[in-house]
Amino acid sequence: MKNARVIVIGWIVWAMVVGTMVGGCGDGASAPADAADTAADAADGAADGVEDGASEDAADAADTSDATADDTADVVVIGPPPLTWAPYVRGDFNDWGTGSALVYQGQGVYQVSVAIAVGSHMFKIADDAWTLSTIYSTDGKSHVEIPLATPMPLVSATGYNNDAVLNIPAEGQYTFILTVTGEGAAASLVLEVVQGDLTPIDYPDDSAVETFAATPWTPSPPTGGSARVLAPGALFDALGVDVAAGEQVQYLYGDKIDGYYEGWTHSYTTASRYRHHAGYLFTYAASLVDGALLDATHDATGTTLYPYGARTRYGATRWEELVLHGGERALTLRVHSDTPGRLAIVPKLEMRRTSTATWQRLNDTMVYALEADQQRPDAPSFVAIAGDRAHTVTGVDLTQRPELGAIVGITASSLKPIFTTADAETDFRLCLAFGTTAADAAARARAMVATDTVSAAQQQVYDFLARGYLWTDDATYNRALAWARLSARMMVVEELGSGIWAGLPWFKNNWGRDTFISLPGALLVSGGFDEARAVITNFASLQQTDDSSSDYGRVPNVVNSLTDLNYNTTDGTPWLVREIAETVRATGDTAFGDAMFPVVERYLTGAIANHTDADGLLTHGDTATWMDAAFTGPDGTLLPWSARGDRAVEIQALWYVSLRVGEEMATARGETAQATAWGALADGVKTHFLARFWDDTAHVMADRVRVDQSRDTKVRPNQLMLLSIPFEDRLVGPDVEAHVLKNAVSALLYPYGIASLDQTHPYFHPLHDNQAAYPKDAAYHNGTVWGWNAGFTVTALVRYGQVELAYALSQNLADQILGLGTRGAMSELLDAHPNAQGGLTPSGTFAQTWSAAEYARNGLQDYVGFAPDLPAGQLTLSPSIPASWQTFEAEAPFGAAATLSVGFSRPSGRLSFVLRHDHSAPLTLVLRPLVGGARYRLAVTLAPNTTRTVVVDAAGVGGPTATVDGATVAAPTLDQADQDAIIGTLGAIAPNVDATFPTLEQPNYLQGIIEAGAFE
């Protein structure tokens, strides 16, 4: 150890190394990550950085630094912090995550610098688990701004609608300074936010030049394609989303582990970043050709967002590309010029250039380390970068390249490498790998650069799109469907075990109901059966198994961490049960069903014992359904914005299906007594449901039945789930379903989505966020349009032949996916009514999984009508084909790795289906074509790898006729009569923008009603 001076004040160690890090840190000698390391280790580790360095230039730079006369390290030991918990700044600018740890500086002060984009932002101070006693804000009951450079006391702020508001005038670094006086429960917290990075840093010299040889690799373009599926190049060209020059739009790609890249076209903004489980190390990159910046803001001629990555063009001969890799924490940056030139890439790293944020040459890569006090074991702290051409690496000299500061946003305080080809080249590729250790990151980057990483990413995405493929005459729909599938798919991650994020940015966790509503569209329709089983199994492992608990048998409502679970939902578990059954049907994996039977049994047992009424209906609290928004009342109690206790309509549909699934599973296992008991209860539910919910005189379905047995007949979309949740065994008859469809659609369906409350109701809120008259949660389920509700609306519409109305909705949603908000994704919400310019306003999360997943599900399950039931040896097609589709090609996955190929056309106005599957055994295919509003039924046997052609003539005398392989067969039989007499003519309604709404006219109108106990 070299001349370490130790100043002992307490027990936390801070090493301040003067001059020893100017050039870099040696192989494996990154500064200590643990603040509790000994003073000797801290100083020794820092000093050894130069002593063991691989870079001779780096060591020379250290030896000649004017700042250093010797290798002395000052080690300061700071006293214990006043808080017994570790505070984080958690806001919309960092996904409400734990990437911004407030680091204790001594004297009661904690501090962290955060890069924030222009705009109004919300945040709180809390620990990593949102422990209630650690949550602080500027006010306990409402959103209150904290002005810049103004110290402000913080108060305990549990509950909703009480975030601190921070208005950012200019993009850049902002320092959060938390001052704590007192200790424990008596601690007083004061927060100040100031512009700039105030953390003292010494800016070690980064001018040393490292030289790297070229890395050979072999191009391996993606392969695939068939008579039914476009080849990779053609498919990607067809699916590309073009963004015009100068247009700044948001886009997303996911790594399928615990991170995603949020990018913005034609912009250098800190809102762009590759976010990990906690924090981010990379934001964006800039490219140069022969020293000239390719300025994305001013010079780009457009960007195309491909399913595998984003490419920005500069005329016809130059472009740059970013590709995020699925299944690993890694990305590829690439710059191309048709004319050879010296190419350069500047990756903007969100890593400060201090004595503990080191860089080193390791395994022929450059490895950059996060500051020691910001490193954590559960998120990447190191990024390794490798280039494929011979190149040099040095720090950007902002005095020589001021445009990289003024335009790109490179700062002197950050690690700022520039990678430049040694010779004139037409293509240059950097591979960035992120890891929890330098060695792991370097090994991965080294392996990547020796392969064709871009083609590998293309192949992975192509293979996904080719399974679950649907290609129609409608190019816009094709693109939107593919992007919806990709958007839902990127949310399937391994952050807390196999799971599905609910939405980005602030629902980056696993919710029970969201997970299983999303699962068919995110996984099943694309053949992600192994992942579906893993997601189900992981959630089932968190089931409440304490039979003395009223939550016995439930799975969590939300999983923030494996120790932060709550079970306060009534619908998450029955959605799980439904998806267990659907997964078994799709795969034929009855062994998986057997393994899940105890989960189903435990749920049914607990629900029957704790949550059923005398009629056998499932009971629950006011906020235990998906309409769960609440606020803190004057007396501190939590009050629901849209009370739905104690029996909601869709909950009974889920309960009925759960009982039938249990009955079916018990029967298959030979447990006759159990099957009989559950079947009898299901029969009772079917009878009592109608008596409680259905007004047979007015033909009105209640949204819920209250505790006093009265019906709540507000028109909400939930009743449509009576048509979408059950399998073949229906909870209500077709006449009731028809009335439900008519009533809900006639009151709620706008051209762009279905509202959560009838606009004629006094509780209706036409706009969601940023309203002076009410907090946004008042509108959350009281008018606001939810994207995922469109999914079950389409299912309900096509069930009774309303295909053109359903498809008009799907087409509008396609335009939203491709052109509104985050490109290729669907937002959580829309304002119920258009804005003053007549446009749609997305709200809530910018990418909500169940919104995209339901859109994806509609393609194969509703328009193609594919429903496999492999344990029964049967595939069902109930096609609902829009009139504009003259042809379509579909590849519907089922079984272990089988596919039903469907080719559709309309020869002479007839319906022609060319069918083939590659399953190992013959299957019965039940075709249920739609003729008018009625469905007919025709069964054919499909042998493996044998093509059969079924043609249905809907205009046959006396009803539809059919041929199979050219031979006339028995006429299809009526399977489901039309309900046209009840439904009549349906269409989308217009938003009544000229109406006067009490919720807009009277401040806190609904809140006052609720607090007075007068909510109906």
Write a brief structural summary:
The protein is an alpha+beta fold and 1016 residues long. Helix content is 25%, strand content 29%. It has five domains: 4-78, no CATH class; 88-195, Immunoglobulin-like (Sandwich); 253-465, Beta-galactosidase, Chain A, domain 5 (Distorted Sandwich), CATH 2.70.98; 467-861, Alpha/alpha barrel (Glycosyltransferase), CATH 1.50.10.10; 864-978, Maltose phosphorylase, domain 3.
What does this structure look like?
The longest helix has 22 residues, at 672-693. The strands form 14 sheets. Strands 15, 17, 18, 19, 20, 21, 26, 30 and 31 form a nine-stranded antiparallel β-sheet that branches. Strands 16-22-23-24-25-32-29-28-27 form a nine-stranded antiparallel β-sheet, covered by helices on one side. The chain has a seven-stranded antiparallel β-sheet with strand order 33-54-55-56-60-61-62. The protein starts with a strand and ends in a 5-residue tail after the last helix. It has 22 helices and 63 strands. β5 (103-106) and β6 (109-116) form a beta hairpin. The chain is globular and about 85 Å long. It is of the alpha+beta class and 1016 residues long. α8 (512-522) packs parallel to α10 (572-587), α8 crosses α19 and α10 (572-587) packs across α12 (649-668).
